[in-house]
Amino acid sequence: MSVIEILDVSLTETVSTRLHGCNIDTAPGSKTSGHLAQFSGWVLGRESPAVAVELLNGSNVCRRVRVNIHRPDVAAVYPGVPEAEYSGFKIQMSVLGLTPEIEFLLQAVLKNQSRVPIGVIRVKRRWRQDINDEDRPLVSVVIPCYNQAHFLREAIESVLAQTYPHFEVVVVDDGSTDNIAAVVARYPGVRCFQQRNQGLSAARNTGLRHSIGECLVFLDADDRLMPRAIEVGLASLRDHPECAFVYGHSRFMTFDGSSFHWQPRPRVEGDYYLALLQGCPVFATGSVMYRREIFELVGGFDPSLSPAADYDLYYRIARQFPIHCHEQTIVEYRKHGTSMTRSGELMLRYNLAALRSQWK
To answer: Which residues, at least 6 apart from 129, have a Cβ–Cβ distance to it below 8 Å?
Structure first.
């Protein structure tokens, strides 16, 4: 969970030929949890009524809100100005994807369309563990499973062997017929939820709903995390607070898990969204660690696009937020005949659908 702190508030213009007055109520030092920065205040035009307030980051207008909130305190100070009674404003602005420290400019929009600077607000976004190192974030590892009980034990044990201890494991049985619950029952603390068969993406979303971690990893039931996977992912998120998710590399293993080979993915320089459109640099879903609030903000996996729903999710996130590759190998990906990615024609069809969805 992120925490937003107001570092400084300064008024640019209070009383002038254009304004009777204005104020920013948000106090320096105030903090809110979540990804929304909130600012409130009031503004009262003199030469022309104030009808809106704009929030700018640099030259870009991020938000525009109407001046229409009831402010009896302002009306008491300006009894002869009819607009004073409803001179308040309130702005909410998501700071996800922006730099950790941001300077916003507030400006009033008058009825005659002139603009008057009100003030400047400096904001800093921190992730909760950055504020208190003793508060270790919980990581939820969601394992969807459909008729892969013979692999599930390895997936679960790879999570239980992590060097970072503060995690939960949520298994979703997607209508299997091979007694997934019996496998999970061997591991105290690992939770299992059953549903009728709805597909991989729906199972992942079900796991999300039953999880509570601040960070998310989705591990396929036939893959394995390497021992430092969670530790490395968290360190990378901490080092890159602007990023929505981080990911690493995978190494491939045979059906029986006895031999491995590593296939490097291209290193991305520049625009990740463009790189994703040209050829996805992220291979195994389990190599990705998401910030939960961003994952939920974009709506999770689209079940209609399985098995390319992970690509679609990467596209939707990268269009709005930075992402980062930490270059560490953290997942063992099993190659076998029943793997979804073995069907080239099927994957091509769904990948094209995921690409088309970007221009809906």
So the answer is: 135, 136, 137, 234, 238
Q: How many domains are contained in the chain?
A: 2
Sign of CA dihedral 213, 219, 225, 228: negative
- pLDDT of 278: 59
pLDDT for residue 320 is more than 70? yes
Query: How far apart, in whole angstroms, are the C-alpha atoms of residue 209 and residue 265?
Result: 31
| pLDDT tens digits along 123-160 | 987 765 554 445 688 899 999 999 999 999 999 999 99
How far is the C-alpha of 66 from the C-alpha of 78, rounded, in Å? 20
122 shares its domain with 150: no
Name which of 329, 157, 297 is nearest 229 in CA terms. 329
Q: Residue 293: what pLDDT?
A: 86
Residues 203 and 284 in one domain: yes
The Cα-based distances of 359 to 279, 354, 355 in angstroms read 17, 10, 8
Q: What is the structure's pLDDT at 180?
A: 93
Q: What is the CATH number of the domain that holds 141?
A: 3.90.550.10
| 283: number of Cβ within 10 Å | 19
Give residue 254's pLDDT. 80
**Residue numbers of the domain that contains 121:** 2-130
Exposed/middle/buried for 329, CB within 10 Å: 0-12, 13-18, 19+? middle
Tokens representing residue 138 in the block? 């919980």
Model confidence over 64-88: pLDDT tens digits?
999 999 999 999 999 999 999 999 9
The CA-atom distances, in angstroms, between 324 and each of 52, 223, 228 are 37, 22, 18
Q: Which residue has the higher pLDDT, 297 or 131?
A: 297
CB-CB contact of 132 with 6 (8 Å):
no
- Mean pLDDT, the chain, integer: 84
CB 325 within 8 A of CB 281: yes
Instruction: Find the radius of gyration of the CA atoms of the chain.
Output: 25
